[in-house]
Design brief:
Blueprint (H helix, E strand, L loop, with lengths): L11 E7 L2 E7 L3 E4 L7 H10 L7 E5 L5 H4 L2 H8 L2 E5 L3 H5 L13 H17 L9 E3 L4 E2 L7 E5 L8 E5 L3 E5 L3 E2 L7 E2 L7 H13 L4 E4 L5 E2 L8
Parallel strand pairs: 3-4, 4-5, 5-6, 10-13
Antiparallel strand pairs: 1-2, 2-3, 7-8, 8-9, 9-10, 11-12, 13-14
Length: 235
């Protein structure tokens, strides 16, 4: 557990590593999963839940921060296992529902990103295969409260990495940002800009919006959580 009631927080936050992606299980009066990880990780997901003494049916919502394959690869299987509703921004819906669509990685924001995009990421995306399923909740650009799911927080539209990127901001300041930021090797040195993004300027705008709305700590999908103060020099 990354955080918990002993730290003065209401919600528990558990990180679940599914492939290269950090997924997050948030427990308060209800339980919500952020992201579905890479494909073929359902056994690891079940094993982690068992170690946490959490029953799959406790999860009522799966929130996908965006449509890239390493975030939605096991989402369909997790949905079937848990019976949870599946939520994603409307701009990414088709990638979860239509078999024939292929993803295109965002442009690189740095030399290291260009090297990875030209080799590993382009190849992985080209061969990526994952189960598809129906999206139960199509999110728009407006904020969406998770109070009905027992979570003191809201889903916010935070584009920049991709046009369908969203973040979950808890009332206590924890922001689950998907690939809106990254932190640490082998992705990047330190916290900051994702190495792939549709628009780096829009990424910074989304950072500012989250910080203005009370974000204190970013929980990225790649790398360790970090205080938002580390971004101030990049804003």
């Amino acid at each position: 557990m990354l955080k918990g009631q002993e730290d003065g927080m209401t919600a528990e936050i558990h990180q679940i590593q599914l492939g290269l992606t950090n997924c997050y299980l948030i427990r308060d009066e209800g339980t919500v999963l952020v992201d579905g990880g890479q494909p073929k990780n359902i056994r690891k997901f079940l094993k982690t839940l068992s170690s946490l003494a959490i029953e799959p049916k406790e999860i009522s919502l799966i929130l996908l921060t965006h449509c890239h394959w390493d975030h939605i690869g096991s989402a369909a299987e997790i949905k079937t296992l848990t019976g949870a509703r599946l939520a994603i921004h409307g701009n990414g819906r088709d990638f979860m529902e239509k078999d024939w669509l292929k993803m295109v990685p965002p442009p690189a924001t740095c030399l290291w990103g260009r090297l990875i995009r030209a080799t590993t990421v382009r190849f992985a995306t080209a061969i990526a295969s994952y189960p598809r399923t129906t999206v139960d909740m199509v999110l728009g650009d407006d904020d969406y409260s998770l109070s009905d799911y027992g979570i003191d927080g809201s889903v916010l539209y935070t584009p920049g990495h991709s046009s369908d990127s969203v973040s979950l901001l808890l009332g206590t300041g924890e922001a689950f940002v998907g690939d809106l930021a990254m932190n640490g090797l082998p992705i990047r040195i330190g916290a900051g800009m994702p190495i792939f993004a549709d628009d780096a300027g829009v990424v910074r705008e989304s950072w500012r919006m989250l910080i203005d709305m009370g974000a204190k700590v970013f929980y990225p999908a790649h790398g360790k959580p970090f205080a938002v103060d580390k971004l101030k020099g990049a804003l």
